[in-house]
Specification:
The structure holds 2 protein chains of 2 kinds. By secondary structure, chain A is an alpha+beta fold. Helix content of chain A is about 40%, strand content about 25%. In chain B, the strands form 3 sheets. In chain B, strands 1-2 form a two-stranded antiparallel ribbon. Classes of the chains: A alpha+beta, B alpha+beta.
């Protein structure tokens, strides 16, 4: 049986924990929101997209504060448990195990902070159409959002200007968009 | 004729074109201080079309709408080829359809452009098969009794049903759902056998 050709190509939202993903089709962008076994879709046709608006958010800062606080707290407790265990000869072994577990938790929290920082600033992407502003849900990082815009812009410009020659998204130059007076 | 402007997603304030940095299109909203980056497209500069929704009256010799014989045909349905007036012209992405084709496609879920929701049965089966394992062990017997058979039933029921529009059919999730469902049932059966033997042993002794 011949395999059905793929209509959609994923452009954002990789990983199993991302509920909102962004897909690229021939004439539209599609956001899929999945929860459990149910997927809901929203389409943005190229000829109807008036603008992408990216708003920077404080999500990265909030997560860094949460994980950083957790790392500091567990690290401090691990240090206290470790130092207390030195005084008790009989309780050394179990206390050191607890200290090691807490230190591991602190290490994981610190790694999450590091990963979150390296991923770059967070943002929320919106699409403006004739019917108003609509949130896209993905991408959640500013750098990824700019990459997405750079990739999709030539296709949108091609659809809106009626240029038959479809530009290749990969390596295409950034489009020159004009703002209405 | 009126033109649209870019609005702040946070506070809804219409942002003035003059406040934008033309090279980077970065602006800070004057009302809520949100930092915004905009990428406008030519569609933003187009005037807002005023649709009367009634269509032009057909003159003698004009092609007329299939559904409204008194109205002038403006376009042609790409599904059935019928002439359509302004009122009956239903744009669907790049396609133009008549209300009849649109209605039948919507009813039968044939057009992927019209699908707004899908139940992915294989993924549901997989989740039913694996999620009870994440719950603490004291709850396992109850969760397994419910989720085990349900996982298998869901996988079988949705075997040939339309799956995710974007990911396509993923049989491995349904198969994994069946395997995990069988494991849950086997666990329950094993527990019942052990308890039965224990009761029988207690009665004989």
């Amino acid at each position: 049986m011949p395999k059905r050709p793929k209509i959609y190509e994923k452009i954002s939202g990789r990983g199993p924990l991302r509920f909102t993903r962004l897909w690229l089709a021939a004439d539209h962008l599609l956001t899929s929101f999945s929860i459990g076994g149910v997927e809901t879709y929203q389409r943005f046709y190229f000829h109807k997209i008036e603008a992408f608006i990216i708003r920077t958010t404080a999500r990265r800062l909030i997560w860094n504060a949460i994980f950083g606080g957790l790392a500091l707290l567990t690290g401090a407790i691990a240090l206290v448990v470790w130092s207390l265990s030195k005084g008790h000869a009989t309780r050394t072994q179990p206390d050191r195990v607890i200290a090691a577990i807490l230190a591991g938790m602190a290490g994981i929290s610190f790694l999450l902070v590091l990963f979150n920082t390296l991923c770059g600033p967070t943002c929320a992407v919106f699409v403006q159409t004739a019917t108003g502003l609509k949130p896209m849900g993905a991408p959640g990082r500013y750098r990824k959002a700019l990459q997405m815009v750079e990739r999709v812009s030539p296709l949108i410009l091609s659809a809106q200007t009626g240029n038959a020659e479809t530009p290749t998204p990969a390596g295409a130059e950034a489009p020159v968009a004009t703002f209405p007076a | 004729m009126s033109f649209r402007s870019i609005c702040c997603p946070q506070c809804g304030l219409a942002l003035d074109a003059g406040s934008w940095n033309a090279s980077q299109m970065v602006v800070i909203c004057t009302k809520c201080q949100s930092e915004l980056t905009a990428h406008p497209f030519p569609a933003l500069g187009r005037p807002v079309p005023v649709l009367t929704g009634t269509g032009q009256v057909a003159l003698e010799g004009d092609a007329t709408c299939f559904f409204h014989p008194g109205k002038k045909a403006e376009s042609c349905c790409e599904g059935c080829g019928r002439f359509l007036c302004e009122l009956c012209d239903m744009p669907l992405g790049a396609r133009r359809l008549c209300p009849a084709c649109l209605g039948s496609g919507l009813h039968r879920q044939e057009m992927p452009e019209l699908i707004s929701k899908r139940i992915c049965w294989s993924r549901t089966a997989f989740l039913l098969g694996t999620l009870p394992l994440l719950i603490g062990w004291p709850v396992w017997p109850i969760a397994f009794v419910i989720c085990g058979p349900l996982s298998i039933a869901t996988a079988i029921y949705g075997w040939n049903k339309p799956q995710s529009l974007v990911l396509g059919r993923r049989r491995w999730t349904a198969i994994a759902g069946i395997i995990f469902g069988l494991l849950q049932i086997a666990f329950i059966c094993g527990m019942v056998v052990i308890m039965w033997r224990a009761i029988a042993h207690a009665k004989t002794s």
